[in-house]
Structure formats: C-alpha cells, structure tokens
Specification:
Elements (H helix, E strand, L loop, with lengths): L2 H4 L5 H35 L4 H4 L2 H28 L6 H34 L4 H4 L2 H25 L19 H4 L3 H32 L6 H23 L3 H9 L4 H30 L3 H10 L4 H5 L5 H9 L1
C-alpha cells in the first residue's frame, strides 16, 4: 500500500539526467501499464458480455477484484507520472487520490479472501455449495467488502484533522503527492497497522482454506480433479497476496539501496521495482483467469485480438461449436 510513498523518489531524475531521462523512464512504466490496463479493461468487458459470467458467483467476484486492481493500477501510474514530471497538486486533490488508492488497494485482498472461501465451500461442502454461494450472498459479500474498506478509509480521513493545515501558507503542496506528505503521527501509525493486519488476516484465511482443501482432497468422496484445481487456485491467490504485500516494502527497500548506490542508479532500480512490484501484481488476476479458465479464454482472446483472430479460433474443429456459442451467444 505504500507505493505512493515511493513515487516522489523518481523526481531525482530531472536533477541528474534531464527531461529526456524522465521521459524515457516514464515510457518504461507507462507502456506496460497501458498494456495491462487494456487487458484488464477487456477482461472487465468480457465478464459483463455473457449471462454465464453475470450469473456465476466466482465470475462476479473476479469482476470485483479486476475492477479494484484496474483502478489501483491507473491511479498508481497517474501518481507516478505526476511525481516524475514534478507536478505539485493541491492538498485536497492529493488527499482524494491517495484515499481512493487506499480504497482500491484494500478491496483486492478482501475479495481474494471471499474467492478463497468460495473455493473452499465448493470442495469441502459440494452438496451445500449451491445453497451457500448464491448470487444474493455474493452480492452481500461484495457490499461488506466495500463497506469495510470505505470505513477504513473514512477513519484515515478523520485522522487527517490533525494535519497542521493552519500552518500552511497555501493549499499548494511544496512536495509531491504521497502518503508521507499527508499521513503523520496517529494517521500514519493507523495506516501501517491496518495494512499489516489486513494482509496477515487475509494470508491466514487463504492459507487455512488451502489446508482445508488439501485435507478434503484425501477423502474418498471428494472429486480429485476439482480439489486439485481448487488447490492450484488457492495457491495462486496466496501468491497474489504476497505480491501485493511486497508493495509495502517498496519504499524501505529503496531507502536501504540509497545508502550504497548513487541516485542515478537508484532511479533506474526504482523503475524496475515499480514495474515488477506495483504494476505486475495489479495485472496478475487478468492473466491468471484469462489463461486458466476454459470459459473465459476463448472469449477474451476473441476480444483482445478483435476480428483478426476470429478465423483462427473458429478453425479449431474439436472446439468449433463451443467457441461459436461463446462468441455469438
């Protein structure tokens, strides 16, 4: 969640390498961001294009996860470019951007928790899955996720009343937009504590679900193929959580590196870390489900490649009827 803090570090680029270096570093981060935003946006469209996606709980949860990741990715890249080009915002504008980023960041791990519990119920209680995991209950779970995240953000906003705005000459920020510019004292402590509590709780829930599925897989009455697929999915959820958690060490890692390297090298390393730690985890969901899910894959590939790939997809004889239904229905 502390990716915003690290955005200010890129501003050493203009001082040492000039505008050209800033533009090049911005392109390095902007190009993959735009590619993944396109993929995520296409995936969101796909998940609303067919009734099967709108009427299945796990696809509804996936849509919520992708939406939060897409918003988070777009805002992170926006803040990155604002800092890279030395644009100073007004305090209220910066506060709104950071709080919206916090909201999207918290929704992702909470949605992963709900998705993990859904897989756990599907394997361990297959006869009751249809009764427990309904569209109505899924909607309630999503509302709870958004409500909890919104309340958490509201608490952060209330803690900002301690910010010494009366000591400012103007609302124009003298530094670049980041958490370290706004969160101080209790607000910063609460932000860190809630972040670590969220990820630890989410990690424990996904891990327990994974262990429960492993135990259930040994039962003679359990569908082995379904259990194996659920185990792989839960393991991927755990990897997603770990990658999201690495964003919290992004800034401390750069501080440690700055003690042994010069600033020009730090800027270059930061671009690499930003792409790997901030951008890639926000795009992992679309890549995982777009490739693994047999129902999503043909529709996603069709929309990604537009009409150019249509003939190639339909030429596969064994899957021709299935793909045709998915595309035309």
């Amino acid at each position: 969640m502390y990716e915003n803090q690290s955005h200010t570090n890129i501003t050493v680029g203009p001082q040492y390498q000039g505008l050209l270096a800033v533009v090049l570093f911005s392109i390095v981060s902007t190009v993959p961001s735009c590619v993944f935003l396109f993929i995520n946006g296409t995936m969101l469209f796909v998940l609303r294009s067919k009734p099967v996606f709108c009427e299945t709980s796990r696809y509804i949860l996936l849509y919520n996860l992708l939406f939060a990741d897409t918003v988070n990715l777009a805002q992170s890249q926006l803040l990155y470019l604002i800092a890279a080009f030395r644009i100073r915002l007004m305090y209220p504008v910066c506060g709104v951007l950071i709080m919206l980023n916090n909201l999207a960041t918290e929704i992702s791990p909470l949605t992963l928790v709900v998705m993990s519990l859904e897989r756990y119920v599907a394997v361990c209680y297959p006869l009751r899955h249809a009764a427990i995991i309904t569209i109505r209950n899924t909607g309630i779970a999503i509302i709870v996720v958004w409500t909890f995240s919104s309340l958490n953000v509201l608490i952060r906003v209330l803690l900002l009343v301690n910010f010494p705005f009366e000591e400012l000459d103007s609302l124009q920020m003298k530094d670049f937009c980041g958490k370290e510019s706004l969160l101080r004292g209790m607000s910063d402590l609460y932000d860190r504590a809630s972040t670590y509590f969220l990820f630890v709780s989410a990690g424990m829930t996904v891990t327990c679900s994974y262990i429960g599925v492993m135990v259930a897989a040994r039962s003679a009455s359990t569908d082995k193929a379904s259990a194996q697929k659920a185990r792989n999915t839960l393991l991927l959820h755990l990897v997603q959580l770990c990658l999201s958690l690495t964003s919290t060490i992004h800034n401390p890692l750069l501080i440690a590196i700055s003690k042994v390297l010069d600033r020009i090298m730090i800027v270059r390393i930061q671009v690499v870390l930003y792409v790997c730690i901030i951008i890639f985890p926000r795009s992992l969901s679309a890549l995982i489900y777009g490739i693994r899910d047999q129902t999503i894959r043909p529709v996603l590939m069709y929309h990604l490649c537009c009409q150019w790939k249509r003939s190639t997809l339909l030429s596969d004889a064994p899957n021709k009827a299935k793909i045709s239904i998915l595309i035309t229905s």
